[in-house]
Amino acid sequence: MFLLIGCGLSVEAGEPVSDPATLAKTALEAKESEVRRAAVERLTDQALLAKVAVEAKGLDVRVPAIEKVTNQTLLRQWAGKDPQAAIRQAAVTGIGDDRFLGRLLQPEPSAAVRVAIVKTLRAEEALRDVALTAYYQEDRDQALQRLRQAHSPVFDAAAAAHAELRRKVEALAVETDDNKLLVLAIEGNVDVLRAAAARRLSDPVALEQVALHADDREVLKILLAKLNDTAILNRIAAAADDRPMRLAAARKAEARSWRDIFDAATAKGATVERLGDALAAVSLFSEVQPEAVDGVQHACLNLIRRGDESRIPEMVDLLEGYGDKTLAEDYLNCGQPDLDAAGRSWAQRRGYTVNPGPGSHRARWGSGR
Asked: Three-state SS across 12-48?
């Protein structure tokens, strides 16, 4: 919960605890979260910090411990392999190798972690590379902004490259070569090129081919809105590479209902992947699907409890159309950084203020594993 409670650690005589072993034991075993965090704040022994970072049960303790670890080998392991974005986010901030961070950026699914990576980069050359080659526009823009703020001599060249990319995107608005558009929509090296190509496509054959093989969510959303032929939708429902696109096409073709899709995803023996696919299918529709609201809210809570990050971008997007104050507070209090940011944005757009205090906390990240 957002609840601010001051606390400290002391021995019976009132002296502050300073023994490293005692602090580590407290960080791992104390019942109150605030006490565990206070122990981590006082702990400086690197070996014990690493122990706490690995063995502590809650992110509220693991994250501050990782933020104090300096061992680059451990930080790289957490940044590259940990399944939880909060851990990866904490780890990247302590890594001093720009090349390693650059390699992490492209495959990183969490926007919050990518923000932390770009913020942590030190060399102007590394920032320039991100500004020029990162797939997502927000990453390219963040790197360019850092170059501007640093008055970097490479800023002008990077800014010119951004302007050239904008011209390429604008030129696609009048492109008539369907083959070029098809290839760009599937294989474009940056997100805005793929989306612009998808918006321009109109040939039914090309639309179907892109819908069958694209893996960019924005492209799939654009295509789904364009597709109305039942036969094409049925073929996509049967053979699309993207599983949520199959479900979305089946729904648009009226071959399946949202109730059927979510019932199947929550039936006994159904996998968490199937639940995530149902959630992702809803996110491909531009218009809110009234029959899916309950399914989306329950799916979001279930994925939070399971600590499954495979559909975080979809969960972020769906909060706007399918969420309410209670779900926004669940996002804020669950411990996942992308959902926290989404909850704050949702609240800001509606004039709410996020303050420490009681709030909905129906699900904690990974509590149901």
From this structure: CCCCECCCHHHHHHHHHHCCCHHHHHHHHHHCCCHHH
Give residue for tokens 């930080």.
75
Could you tell me if residue 229 is left (phi over 0), alpha (psi between -120 and 50 degrees) or otherwise beta?
A: beta
Strand positions, DSSP E, the chain: none
**Using CA atoms, how far apart are residues 309 and 316, in angstroms rounded to an integer?**
11
User: Domain segments of the chain: what residues?
Assistant: 1-70, 178-256
3-class secondary structure, 10: strand
Identify the CA nearest to 67 among candidates 81, 88, 98, 38: 88
φ and ψ at 357, to 5 degrees?
155, 180
Please enumerate in sequence order all residues whose Cβ is within 8 A of that of 53, keeping only pairs 6 or more positions apart, or say none.
Answer: 62, 65, 66, 69, 74, 78
Q: Given this model, what pLDDT does residue 221 score? A: 98
What pLDDT, in 10s, does the model give residues 9-35?
A: 332 334 456 789 999 999 999 988 889
Q: Record the tokens describing residue 123, joined without a space.
A: 């060399």
Distance from C-alpha of 213 to C-alpha of 240, rounded to nearest angstrom:
6
Closest CA to 312 of 65, 92, 89, 99: 89
Query: CA-to-CA distance for 362 and 345, rounded, in angstroms?
Result: 20
236: which residues sit within 8 A by CB, 6+ positions away? 208, 211, 212, 227, 245, 246, 249
User: How far, in whole angstroms, is CA 141 from its chain's centroid?
Assistant: 17
Q: pLDDT tens digits, residue range 249-286?
A: 999 999 999 999 999 999 999 999 999 999 999 999 99
Does residue 357 sit in helix, strand or coil?
strand
How far apart CA 50 and CA 119 sit, in angstroms, is 24
Q: Rounded to the nearest 5°, which phi and psi values hold at 307?
A: 65, 35
Per-residue 3-state assignment (H helix, E strand, C coil) for 235-267 = HHHHHCCCHHHHHHHHHHCCCCCHHHHHHHHHC
